[in-house]
Amino acid sequence: MRIVSKTLMAAVLLFSWAATASGQAYPSRSVRVIVPYAPGGGADFVTRVFGKAWSDNLGQQFIVDNRAGANGNIGSELAAKSQPNGYTLLSVANTTVTINPSLYRQMPIDMLRDLAPVSIMAGQPNVLVVHPSLPARTVKELVAIARARPGQLDYASASTGSSSHIAAELFRLVAKISITHVPYKGNGPAMADLIGGQVQLMFNNLAPSVSQVKAGKLRALAVTAEKRSAAAPDVPTMAEAGYAGVVFNLWVGLLAPAGTPVEIIAKLNAETVKAAQLRELRERLLAEGTEPYTTSPSQMADILRKETAQWAKVVKAANITPQ
């Protein structure tokens, strides 16, 4: 009986340890959140705002680790190949996860297989902005000008394969117009040339565009979301402007290495949902034109699969290749 009791006690202790390790005491130390871009961008901002809430609520530091390169592939690979124990996470823009697999011939990881969705955290649309010298006050007027001057209108993008590039190519395909792509090394240089009149239009992130529109340096024609943005309520959606097929939602989501225990995924999801309801967090994000919203892990997985298939068609149709 003594041997049986010892064996039973060992089993109980082992089960107790396993349960604790799989999430009940998580996190018991600091957590690294890899952001696969340089500091200061939209995903970095969203991650730091949520990271503070996670740290405050869970009593452990969530430390942002910026690992830029290869359009987000370098940091994503590092996260995917980390130990699946909840102590290395990935906060990433949907463009990296859903567009890169079609953009690059050789991917270091399988984005859908090697990463486990936790939740979307926040999102914002792109906005179609034009230089004031262009006599277009609606999307239809812009399309009419583009058709009258095929190939003569230049559109800026942050880089080849960026959200600003893909959104413009989707618009070009839906509207059946010929406009010329001018890629830059980042949103900043692209916006500078747009404001300077060197290029005529751009699908830019909403947040940095709003102030330029208010200053009269740019004109906003439409946003690429399903509904109008609270940050620019007077700007119609592309559907309202007559081009319902041009929908491009930028969002930032949290993922973990595949194989991370479901208990940890569930806890991270619950904490993200809780954080998104905080008044201070919502106000900080909304002030930057970014709207906090969350999903379940399964909902996020469905969105990832749907967007990956959608953008594969656009990348193929537009014959986009990375530079």
Under CATH, the topology of the largest domain is which?
D-Maltodextrin-Binding Protein, domain 2
CATH homologous group name of the largest domain: Bordetella uptake gene, domain 1
* Biggest beta sheet summary: 10 strands, mixed
Helix content: 40-55%
Q: How many discrete domains? A: 2
The low-confidence runs, each spanning 5 or more residues with pLDDT under 50, are 8-23
**Mean pLDDT over the residues:** 90
Q: What is the CATH architecture term of the largest domain?
A: 3-Layer(aba) Sandwich
Question: Could you explain the architecture of this structure?
Answer:
The chain is an alpha/beta fold. It folds into two domains: 29-123 and 250-318, Bordetella uptake gene, domain 1 (D-Maltodextrin-Binding Protein, domain 2), CATH 3.40.190.150; 125-223, D-Maltodextrin-Binding Protein, domain 2 (3-Layer(aba) Sandwich). It is built from 13 helices and ten strands. The protein has helices at residues 2-24, 42-58, 73-80, 94-98, 100-103, 111-114, 139-148, 163-175, 187-196, 206-214, 262-276, 279-287, 297-318, and strands at 31-35, 62-66, 88-93, 115-130, 154-157, 180-183, 201-205, 219-223, 249-257, 291-292. Strands 1, 2, 3, 4, 5, 6, 7, 8, 9 and 10 form a ten-stranded mixed β-sheet that branches. Strand 1 (31-35), helix 2 (42-58) and strand 2 (62-66) form a beta-alpha-beta unit. The longest helix is centred in the first third of the chain and has 23 residues, at 2-24. The radius of gyration is 22 Å and the shape is globular.
